[in-house]
Amino acid sequence: MADLGFDFPDDEYDQDAVFEESEKEGSTSVNTTFSDANPQIEEQQEHNTIESEIVPFAEYSAPQDDALIRAMTEEQHLGEELEDELLADENVTPIERVYGFRENDALLNRLLLAKELPVALEEITLSEAIEDVLPIMDKLAVDTDDTVRETFAGELDQVLLYFYKNTPAMFSSKPQEKSFAPLIIRLLLDRSTGVASLGQQAVVSVVTELRALSDQNSAYQQVIDCEVFKGIIDGLMSIIDGKRKSPRLQDEEDQNAINRDEALRYHRVSIDDDPATRSRRPSTTPGFESSLNVHHASAFEDEFDQGEISLAKITCISLIASIVGAFEVEKCIEECLPIIEKLASDPLFYVRKEAAAAVGSMALVVDTKTAEERLLPLFRQFAQDQVWHVRRSCILTLPQICSVLSEETKAELTVSSVEKFRNDDSRNVRNAMADIIGDLISKFLPPDWELTGKPGNLPEPLLQYFLSLGLNASNNNNQMLKLEIDRTYICAYNFPAVVLTAGADYWNSHLRDTYLNLTKDYQIKVRCTFAHSLHDIARIIGPERTERDLVQIFALYLMDIDDVKQGVLEHLADFLGTLAANSRNEYIPILQEVWDGVSNNWHLRNILAGQLIDISLLFDASHVVECILPLVVRACHDEFAAVRETGVSVFPVVLDVVKNAVEEDGESLSQAEGYGDDIAENKRNYALALLSHVMERLDEFARSESYRGRLVFAQICKALIEAGIGASDFASFFLPRLAPLAYDPVVNVRIAASRTIGAIYKNEPFRKELNEIAAPSRTANQTGESLHALEQMAYRFALDKDSDVRSFVTDYIDSDMLEKQRKKEQATADILKPVENTQSNGEEEYEEEEEEGDNDDEDDESKSISDNDKLTSDTKEKSTSPMDQVITPPEEKQSKTEPMDISTDEDEIMLEAEDVATSATPSPVSSSPPSSISPPSLPSHSTTAVVLQKQDDKED
């Protein structure tokens, strides 16, 4: 009996068996006696017998639960074993997997081996690879699992290149010692499309790599000829010609032969005694089929053979089209082209379709004579094909064929093709003609059009057909046009190429009306396409036509939806550059309105801010300061960090434009009135005023009460260093304003400042020049130890409590000096702590007295407030932090700080700009430095400076 999983005690089972046997004997006697007399008694006895055989639920429920638990436990153990096996397979190295392939051929091991085979080849010797890996490759290529074969095909190019590069003589000798052609053909003809596709990609990759290496070693070209052409292509042609069978058919024949041998070995032929029955009944034993079965099998095999041959044809044509560029021109003409010509008349349309596509690839490598004598007849043959798939494939190759034909033949072929295919019966063919019209028209450009700018000799029928695509389909009642593809979009996409080929002379007569109508199309994608190409059209047709026809489209698109607006903004500088200088100055004020129009889209603001760099180079300094600088400042104050960073990158360009105007004494300025009677002096003063205005904006960032403004200033300093600012300019203006940021309470500001100092140290020539110009700090001790302002900032950042701040300068400082600075700051902090406590106690006592005092009159209260304000202002005047100082004239700076060696004209320009800024604007008021220790970059008379001086004296 089968074990059903029930667990009964043996004693109970024996008692039940005895009881059942005695009961059966009694029932048998009763049935024998009364069966004929009383059938009802028999039914009742049978019912009683059935009830006695029913097992109570309580007796078998427990054993069933135990069996279920055991089954679940076994399943859990099995899952753990599989998991352990997977983990073990992952821990096995590729070399171990190669050598353990014979003992462990599990699916997971085969899959990992196919993936890691290139890695294993790099870790073994060449002889071991030939001896051990080549047999494994043959087994993986015929693996029964599609995933294993697909994985192997994906890594095949690396494996083949390993053998081809290391042993090229083995695969190029005559006769060849070894060839991968059978293995590759097997993969190319695999029943899985994924395997076949990856196999062809591997061949293309290998041929491309070997072709690039053939210039250094001619043996690689011989490998291509022997392996790819003679091995793979000739092998596929042998299958096509019936000289050999495909690998799959050969495998099936081998398997059938094995089956027949097994049938003869293990089965006997049964012979029916009746000759008539034996003659009527067909045999089903393998190898002894009747003639009827043999006939059906033969027909099936012939059909299967034709399918394999057709697949070989398509694979061969596709492979030739993919790698035809790797062969020499003579080999392509003599050996590859005859294959295309042979298969061009194949009865199967999908073979002809592949052959038509291969004609375009062949046109890219052959000369003009071969194209006109041999490729052109093939094209015309495919153009007359009855199947629309072939005609469509033929049309798609027309631009490639025209690229190699002469001008007369090209014009004649294109005109006849357009007239033939524009009214083709198949909609797909008509759509294909519309798809390639732009590329086809561009083939009429002269070869040197990039240098000369000359247009091409475009046939009139091609231009008229292209313009017909731009007709408004909504006004056409033809229902068939609604099934066509969106030809308006195709026309919009190809319009720049058509205008370039036809030339600006065709604008007024042929192109203008169609273009203006299409730019107002209701489709968003059409307007987006025109928005992205507006600057290209403007560059082709010239400034006058642009201002007359395109400026209105430009303004219209700036008020369109964001997708259309983005296309204009991405090329805003290019479009403004196509306008004349006078017209360009008229349109620059609209930039403020454009910025307001994108106020709700930070991405568009970022694009516009990035365009300001190129726009600044199109205008003089006055327009840059008047119209562009406010936008740069707005970008630096933007709520999105990406926009602020883009605005920071514009400042070096703006400063450079204005500074160049000052160096030229304002000769390039378009307006300079109200700065003197002398014209030359007037322009010079105006240029200095412009530079002063830029410096004021920069100074506002450095003194900003918002941490974002101070952070932007640090970023601007870094951008100026990367842009190549002079060390004298940086030392005179930017470095004194950068020093207080080392004590900023916001860590992000200190990080930005530390990053700037790190950029200075990376630029070694700039750092050396800056150290020569910057004066040593007054906090240096009397033993000769002197720290420049730059070095003090570096050590201050290195002592910062935040690791991100320290990370930018730790590689550029001396550890011993850093330890001294740490001890000095610690000692200073210990001395200042009682002073701070005393001041805080004094403030508390003053507050208590003020609370306890009686209410004075309003005059006394206002007087008290004014005295307090005066005290605060006196404290601020005593502060010598660079952040609290305004841009002072050179005389005042010389009296307050040590003299700097400034002798260049650029330095004088910067100082003059500071003079104008000081006289023109008041000093903004900012908060004092957050730290109790004053920044060491400038002299200080505060308590901290005195304490530091005393500490230095003690160390001396």
From TrEMBL:
Compositionally biased region (Acidic residues): 842-861, 903-915
Ranges for the HEAT repeats: 336-374, 375-413, 511-549
Molecular function terms from GO: protein phosphatase regulator activity
Keywords: Repeat
Feature: compositional bias, Low complexity: 918-931
Region listing for Disordered, in residue ranges: 20-46, 819-956
Compositionally biased residues, Polar residues: 27-42
InterPro entries with a match to the protein in the record: ARM-like (IPR011989), ARM-type_fold (IPR016024), HEAT (IPR000357), HEAT_type_2 (IPR021133), PP2A_Regulatory_Subunit_A (IPR051023)
Basic and acidic residues bias spans: 862-879, 890-899
GO cellular component: a single term: cytoplasm
Name this protein carries in UniProt: Serine/threonine-protein phosphatase 4 regulatory subunit 1
Organism: Choanephora cucurbitarum
